[in-house]
TrEMBL record, chain A:
One GO BP annotation of this record: peptide transport
Name used for this protein in its record: Peptide ABC transporter substrate-binding protein
Positions of the Solute-binding protein family domain: 81-462
Entry coiled-coil feature ranges: none
Lineage: Bacteria, Bacillati, Actinomycetota, Actinomycetes, Kitasatosporales
UniProtKB/TrEMBL annotation, chain B:
Family annotation (CDD domains): TM_PBP2
Keyword flag Glycosyltransferase: no
Residue ranges crossing the lipid bilayer per the database entry: 12-31, 96-118, 130-154, 174-192, 224-249, 275-300
UniProt lineage: Bacteria, Bacillati, Actinomycetota, Actinomycetes, Kitasatosporales
Topology relative to the membrane: Multi-pass membrane protein
Name the record gives this protein: ABC transporter permease
GO cellular component labels: plasma membrane
Pfam families registered for this protein in UniProt: BPD_transp_1, BPD_transp_1_N
Organism name: Streptomyces tirandamycinicus
Location within or outside the cell: Cell membrane
Family classification: Belongs to the binding-protein-dependent transport system permease family.
Matches recorded under InterPro entries: BPD_transp_1_N, MetI-like, MetI-like_sf
Primary residence: membrane
């Protein structure tokens, strides 16, 4: 150990110097070219429009892509973006005309082909796109994406380029509101570089939105800069956005309060109590298109006896939604009053009276209904949830507490945690649930159809409880075939009443988007998907 | 010596195979990872089947393990679910964690051994009692409490440091996280050194050295400290592996994108390739550091020889 003391001294000196240098950088620039720093999570899947099904990746797509339609960040209405016209006579065959003058940020014009190629890519089985089912209504989807076996076609027969800026789409069934689904990111156009050099595109995605990707270090940061050649009306009002990956939303929040970050769009539950004091009116808490429910395993004969809807209704009435949202969620959730979301608005199909007494806390009637329905199967409700994310344990315990109090039985309801989300999903897919389980739905597009069909239609993609009801299915088919949107919504609401009468799933609450921001930036708002409207943010 | 090293290296093979197999089985028991890949909705069966085939999940576990090990020997650790090769994740994560571990080890050596010597030589004095009390508190308080507290005080209240570490994780930003990570081990190192020093202080060779009239400084460093370091070196050596793997809490608090972060993500997403890959490398690090520690004994105490 000769010389150890020298090493020690040197290490000390280095440490002292380093501590002394640990000072912050200079103040960042403001004005129209100011850069916004925002918290981000590592996208779960490779960043492709038809492969992104979670908020973090969706956030980027919303900045670098514009599709045929766009949902107004305030009203949620689907408005024409790149679409000049979408015409149909029969709600089956649609003719789409793309606006002139749009290009990708690498200069390539956006044409009808950009859309058709992108959709064919998204639908094809060999590309492993998690959102492929979005193209399921288009004719020929079965050939490129069969439920089993190999694809028999390369492209969907229902998609045809008919001109530089026009193409036609043929659906397999009547779907009057189909054009309004086109604001979803999966329907974004793709430049030819996506297909010619896919790896390079993934390393630095190129789109046609108000921002262009400047640099992307996976797992760490993505720098987006305003694209000055953007032809749209919704140009970015800041110089760009730096999305920084945080491993923990608490750290992001700490960074915000210390002045090192401008925007967090996920205020952690633990901080909700301090957020008003910390941020004042720089805290946003607005409704988003997310509803949480309790689903039931209808594949389990114990939970699928005739007349048992009374038990489910009783359970629903035994849950004190108001108290739970007030105390556990600090009013970042709103007690559910139907099976959709307030962001749809009354014209879009939201109905605050639809669930009525069935969603109102009434312990006496709850007890009576459950007894009439034959009691709780097995004498105990076990609510299954994943314990790794989203503070689910707290509310499940609270729901059980509420049910136990209402029924006057300490053992009537218990939580049944599952370690990880993947394992939880695994048990659901394998139909292994032995009682009610946590279900959540974040809308893909602000349509009442999206809150009902994927969740309750027989064998639908997210019908995890395998609920099936002929009347409901018939009403949904009827609504989809309706050419008048207002009538379609009315019919969907009729279908929703079937869900209510059968209490197919117990609606719990609507989730709000919550965000906080620094004094450096203003004009911050969240859209219905609880994603910040980045292009409107101003700096300084 | 050479034969000893070779024997030790050969012993690593069964340990390595056993450890990776265990991890492989454990991650596998957690269920089908594809189920969590499509968010709250079920993956459509055709896509799920294709993804399963792509990641080799459709084969029996023993076959998956054999293929995996075969690939590992050619340097291919597979692909994470976000499409990135695991080796790329490692290249990003390991340098960061190694830097963090180094900072922690330097703290352990400098402060731990320093305080240990100080208290060992002044046993029973107020300094000794004071340091003992402090180490007791440090050992008792969980890492996440120390971490969050320092983050709040230094980062938010006084603004001396950034509460989170940037993606590049330069050394200066890692000082506070390194201290937090080292805290508990540091207290142990202090106590170990103290005991060892206090014991050896009365040893014959120290008395002889003093009687020979050697300068006090030389007696302290070359005779007393060197002989007292064996248990400390053992502890620090074993700690290197523990620090690298156990940095999950510290890395989460300070937003450090190192091994702990990747492991955490890998476990949450049930990504066998990520978890097994990272753990494999950690096992290797652990084994090699242990070998190094054993070899260091001979340097510290020439009486120890390896045949």
């Amino acid at each position: 150990m000769r010389g150890a003391t020298h090493v020690t001294r040197a290490a000390c000196a280095v440490a002292v110097v380093l501590v002394a240098c640990a000072c912050g950088g200079g103040a960042p620039a403001g004005g129209p070219d100011g850069i916004v720093t925002s918290s981000w999570g590592d996208p779960q899947n490779p960043l492709e429009p038809a492969n992104t099904n979670e908020v973090q990746g969706g956030k980027v797509l919303d900045m670098i892509f514009r599709g045929l339609k766009r949902y107004d960040p305030r009203t949620g209405e689907a408005e024409d973006m790149l679409a000049e016209r979408i015409e149909t006579d029969d709600s089956v065959e649609f003719t789409v005309t793309v606006k002139n003058g749009w290009t990708f940020s690498d200069g390539e014009p956006v044409t009808a082909k950009s859309f058709v190629d992108a959709w064919n890519y998204g639908a094809h089985l060999k590309n492993n796109q998690r959102n492929a089912y979005f193209f399921g209504y288009i004719e020929g989807y079965d050939q490129v994406h069969p439920a089993s076996g190999q694809p028999t076609a390369q492209t969907m027969s229902g998609l045809k380029v008919t001109g530089e800026r026009t193409f036609t789409v043929r659906l397999t069934q009547k779907f009057s509101t189909w054009p309004e689904t086109l604001g979803y990111a999966a329907f974004a156009p793709l430049p030819s570089s996506f297909f010619s050099d896919h790896d390079a595109w993934l390393a630095r995605p190129v789109g046609n939105g108000p921002y262009a990707v400047d640099s992307y270090t996976r797992g760490a940061q993505m720098s987006l800069r305003r694209w000055d050649g953007y032809p749209g009306q919704d140009k970015a009002r800041n110089g760009g956005v730096d999305l920084k990956v945080y491993t923990d939303s608490n750290t992001a929040y700490t960074d915000l309060t210390a002045g090192h970050l401008d925007l967090v769009d996920d205020v952690p539950a633990a901080q909700l109590r301090n957020v008003r004091a910390d941020l004042g009116d720089r805290y946003i808490n607005t409704p988003a298109g997310i509803i949480q429910t309790l689903a039931f395993p209808y594949y389990d004969p114990d939970w699928n006896k005739p007349g048992q809807e009374k038990v489910r209704q009783g359970l629903s009435m035994a849950i004190n939604r108001q108290q739970i949202t007030d105390t556990i969620f600090q009013r970042t959730r709103t007690p559910a009053k139907d099976w959709t979301s307030p962001v749809l608005g009354p014209d879009g199909g939201y109905d605050a009276t639809l669930c009525g007494v069935h969603c109102t806390y009434d312990p006496a009637r709850a007890r009576k209904l459950i007894a009439e329905g034959g009691g709780i199967p097995g004498g105990q409700v076990r609510i299954t949830y994943n314990a790794d994310t989203g503070s689910h344990r707290q509310w499940v315990d609270a729901v059980c507490n509420s049910v136990n109090n209402a029924l006057g039985n300490d053992r009537a309801c218990v939580g049944n945690p599952v370690g990880t989300f993947a394992d939880y999903r695994n048990q659901i897919t394998q139909s292994k649930m032995s009682g009610p389980f946590r279900a959540g739905w974040q809308m893909d597009y602000p349509l009442i159809q999206n809150f009902l069909q994927p969740l309750y239609y027989t064998n639908a993609s997210s019908n995890d409880g395998k609920w099936s009801n002929e009347t409901f299915d018939r009403l949904v088919d009827q609504a989809n075939a309706e050419t008048d949107p207002a009538k379609a919504i009315k019919t969907f609401q009729q279908a929703e009443r079937v869900v209510r009468d059968q209490m197919a799933a117990i609606p719990l609450w609507y989730q709000n988007g919550s965000a906080g921001y620094s004094e450096r930036i203003s004009n911050v708002s969240l859209n219905q998907f609880s994603v910040p409207v980045y292009e409107e943010i101003t700096v300084g | 010596m050479g034969r000893y090293v070779i024997r030790r290296l050969l012993q690593m093979i069964p340990v390595f195979v056993g450890a990776t197999l265990l991890i492989f089985l454990m991650v596998n028991v957690m269920g089908d990872p594809i189920a969590g890949l499509c968010g709250e909705r079920e993956c459509d069966p055709a896509t799920a089947a294709r993804l399963r085939a792509e990641f080799g999940l459709d084969k029996p576990v023993w076959q998956q393990y054999l293929t995996y090990m075969g690939n590992v020997f050619t340097g291919d650790f597979g692909t994470a679910f976000n499409g990135q090769p695991v080796t790329e994740l490692m290249a990003d994560a390991f340098p960061v964690t190694i830097r963090l571990t180094l900072v922690a080890i330097v703290f352990e050596i400098v402060i731990g051994i320093g305080l240990g010597m100080l208290t060992g030589l002044r046993r029973g004095r107020p300094v000794d009692t004071g340091v003992l009390l402090v180490t007791l508190v440090v050992i008792a308080v969980p890492t996440f409490v120390t971490g969050l507290l320092l983050q709040l005080l230094l980062g938010v209240k006084w603004g001396w440091i950034r509460p989170s570490v940037s993606a590049e994780a330069p050394l200066d930003e890692l000082i506070v996280p390194g201290l937090v990570l080292a805290a508990v081990s540091l207290a142990y190192v202090t106590r170990l050194t103290r005991t060892s020093i206090a014991e050896n202080r009365r040893a014959d060779y120290v008395r002889t050295a003093i009687a020979k009239g050697l300068p006090r400084r030389r007696v302290m460093t070359h005779h007393l400290l060197r002989n007292s370091l064996i248990p400390v070196v053992t502890f620090i050596g074993a700690d290197i592996g523990a620090l690298m793997g156990g940095a999950i809490v510290t890395e989460r608090i300070f937003n450090i994108h190192g091994v702990g972060y990747q492991l955490y993500q890998g476990i949450l997403r049930q990504n066998t390739q990520t978890v097994v890959g990272f753990v494999t490398v950690l096992v290797l690090v652990f084994l090699l550091v242990n070998l190094l520690v054993d070899l260091l004994y001979a340097v510290l105490d020439p009486r120890i020889r390896y045949a």
